[in-house]
User: What shape does this take?
Amino acid sequence: MLKKTTLEESFMKSVVFTIKSMIEAFEVIGEAKLKRYYLLPGLLNSALIYVLYQVSKLISTGLFGRLESLFKLETYESLAFLAIKILVAFVAFLLYFFVYKALLLMILSPFLSYISEKVESHVTGKKFDFTMKENLHFIWRGIVISGKSFVKESIATLVFLTLSVLTPINLFTPFFIFMVQCYFIGFSFMDYTLERHDFTPEESTKFLRKNALLAIINGSIFVAILIIPIAGVFLAPLISCVSITLCTLKVLEIDSNIPTKI
Assistant: This one.
């Protein structure tokens, strides 16, 4: 019973942190004059969506044609034929979104790291004067973190898909896969702040495990904003980056007992 109460308290604490940070994010975007940064990630996001859409359309069309000739799908009843076609399209969409999200975070990593730095400077008054070498290191670290997260997500997704076939958890498989993706999305955004505070990749991973619920909730909000038609591709990167930076700073403040003016 104690464990359940602790989990509930942790969940509610993470929700409160996220909501407060989200509200503050809009204020910080205005005060720190960050509104102009909606455009660039939005344009890059739109270009990536278009390219991957064209690629996924070719792949799904080719895959269905291959399945159709291999298994003689035209001999099936029309309803079964339609169900198989929908299933292929759904799987193609999941793969498309999975790859799209990973590429998006890698491509935007330098930009989001810069925004996160601006947010921390604004709310704490701390000025950062990194050398070109340090900035390149931060950019490379962000790309590496996103790449490693993609590999780990892929492995976890395969595990859940395998278990869904072998065990009764198949009804919950989409939920578990979604949670895993949100977990690593949250981590990618949180690490922009952690790297400035001299966290090693191993220390960042420990921080993530300790604040897993916070990462999942923040990651899920990023996805929720991202899927808003048209506007989402422009809003999600900046709003999420600012909000999660504020959230991470609050947790670091609590952990260190050092005020950060947040």
Remarks:
- The helical segments are 2-31, 39-71, 78-124, 132-166, 173-196, 201-210, 212-226, 231-256.
